[in-house]
Amino acid sequence: MRMRFSRPAGYALALLSMVYGAALATAEDARAKSRTATAPADSISILEAERAGQVDLMLSGNGAQSVKLVMANRTDQRLKVVLPPGLVAATSVGQGQNMGFRSIGVRPENPEVGAIIPLAAGQILDLDVAAICLNFGLPTPTSDVQFKLVDVADFTPDTRAQKALRNVAVLGAGYGVAQAVAWNVFNHMTFAQMAKEARRYLNTDEISVAARFVEALDASGTQELVDPAYFQNGRVLVRVRGESGLDSDASRLQKEFEGRRLFGLPVQVVEEADAQTARPSTLWVDIMLVPDAARPGNTRALTTVKHHSAQGGWNKLGNASIALNSAVEKVTADDFVRAIDSGVATAFVKVHPAGKKRGVSSFQVVNKLPFSVDTLVLRTSKAADAPEVTLDGLAIGPNRSGGTSIPTATGILERIELNGL
User: Fold this and answer.
1) pLDDT tens digits along 323-356
2) Which of 66, 221, 285, 377 lies at a 20 to 30 A Cα distance from 122?
3) Residues spanned by the domain of 336
4) pTM value?
């Protein structure tokens, strides 16, 4: 049995806004383009609801990485309020830091429409919204800083900035990646400058992925959204070899790996990770099949994981020793891929209990991979056939940690999905 959850909107909203010199358009033109994705007929945009007096909004500063958002339903009816990609929390001109919604923290049915938040009659939601700063070097927003929620098309006429903001929200970039994109586009900071001046806030993996994001944005031409395949294809390279006597089965399993997925990303089988295959922000999963010394007759996959960063060269991330629990000739392609997928995931992503309250268990997720973790699949007990819980839209950034919660006592990591960001 499998249960699927998305993170509540109030725990994982994030902010971003950008301005960049590019072709200009009117706000109405930009809004017309965004209307190609249609929201449900019985829903209403958060901005339209505010203009119509159906909801009251109050946004205030809450530190460098969050904004306080209070939304109150002023009607006697239940509302479905849509938070579309492309929202900006803006201060008055010259009053300091501006912020814009990066991610709504849930995986909407249609990401181009945005998240739909049910709001009961008279209900008031008090949300701490994860946020990123737009103005490098300006003071951190405090609780006395008040924001006005606007559409990005009303914040800037720059179509490139509008496109960047909407893509960051729809594609689900992690906090540090989105922050690096913002400083590059909005403040014209180069990624090399960030590596020197923003090391307190960003790590090198986040900067590498952000550079690829901006590259994809500029290569997308007139398309409103960057093709997610740009971030996914060619990101995971696999090689399978075997010790003497195991080499023929290693060759068989390597061929059967082609066209499959690891961590939710398509696999590219290689003999060597040379300059042609080693693009920036690429993983190389190098597998050596050996006899399992602890269990005679069985096979073990000694797996080395390396990363090719934007700075160049392969860097070893670590090893995983994965038991295949079978003689090599009996290992099927499905079992092999599943074992590598789970074994590498549990070696580089850790889930630690962080408390329990009212039947809900909290967990700290530590991601040691150079990409954002988008999805976690957890088993609810140690039993192999235990029910699974799938948590979507986490956006735990490269070499970062984050929190999540599930309505069960136990959460044991089974596998992960990356989105290439």
Assistant:
1) 999 999 999 999 999 999 999 999 999 999 999 8
2) 66
3) 231-346
4) 0.80
